[in-house]
Q: What sequence folds into this?
């Protein structure tokens, strides 16, 4: 078992190094990447992001391996343009944004079943805190905090060994039942370790100067600065692309 874990972590580091250079969904930012230093914005109202699933599996009303996970940017339980797929749906890959011409537009979303569903990481680097080699997951069914562990049908948000971001954990996978630590739980808290923020690629703003999130913008799990939602007056409404951020689009 120890040898298997060493091999898995070695593959993880190599995979992260390769995928990050491509700027793809589920890659971690590395020192020297082209996007390092970009200003990231908090998601402005009326955006109210949360995770949800479209009940496309074989068990109606029950979350299972056939259901499709989305980041519901407006939090309205409907698949809208610019929501983000976190698992594959047909020919649409994880990390792609929904457009008005896609056949999943306007489909209903259900809330994730776990009371403590959210973004977690597995501390496998050996130091205290979140590091480059630490896998990141969306825990879907988790209802305990602390003491959370990965479980069947949770979603990988980075590559873990040979298992791609956007894939679900199966019973037989070596990363099933791994202890994990909260990064953003619940999503609205912007903490304790990270915040969802976006790069305003086209620079567009509304009439009062607030950045507008749209199709061209990249979304990150950002660890650079604490959010106001989490830290209050000591928090920030922005951050920066820094090493170990996770790309959620691309």
A:
């Amino acid at each position: 078992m120890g040898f298997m874990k060493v091999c898995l972590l070695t593959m993880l580091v190599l995979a992260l190094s390769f995928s990050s250079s491509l700027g793809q969904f589920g890659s971690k930012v590395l020192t020297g990447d082209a996007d390092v230093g970009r200003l990231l914005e908090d998601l402005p109202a009326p955006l109210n992001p949360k995770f949800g699933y479209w009940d496309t599996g074989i068990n109606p009303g029950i979350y299972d391996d056939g259901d499709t996970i989305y980041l519901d940017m407006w939090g309205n339980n409907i698949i809208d343009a610019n929501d983000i797929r976190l698992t594959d749906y047909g020919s649409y890959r994880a990390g792609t944004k929904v457009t008005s011409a896609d056949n999943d537009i306007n489909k209903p979303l259900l809330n994730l079943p776990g009371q403590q569903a959210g973004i977690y990481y597995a501390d496998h680097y050996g130091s205290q805190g979140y590091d480059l080699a630490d896998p990141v997951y969306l825990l879907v069914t988790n209802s305990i905090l602390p003491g959370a562990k990965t479980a069947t049908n949770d979603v990988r948000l980075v590559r873990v060994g040979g298992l791609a971001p956007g894939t679900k954990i199966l019973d037989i996978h070596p990363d099933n039942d791994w202890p994990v630590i909260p990064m953003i739980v619940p999503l609205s808290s912007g903490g304790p370790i990270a915040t969802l923020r976006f790069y305003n690629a086209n620079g567009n703003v509304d009439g009062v100067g607030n950045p507008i999130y749209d199709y061209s913008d990249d979304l990150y799990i950002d660890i650079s600065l604490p959010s106001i939602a989490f830290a209050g007056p000591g928090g920030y409404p922005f951050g920066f692309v820094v090493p170990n951020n996770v790309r959620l689009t691309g």
Notes: The chain has one domain: 2-43+114-247. Residues 6 and 12 are 10 Å apart (CA to CA). The first helix runs from residue 2 to 20.
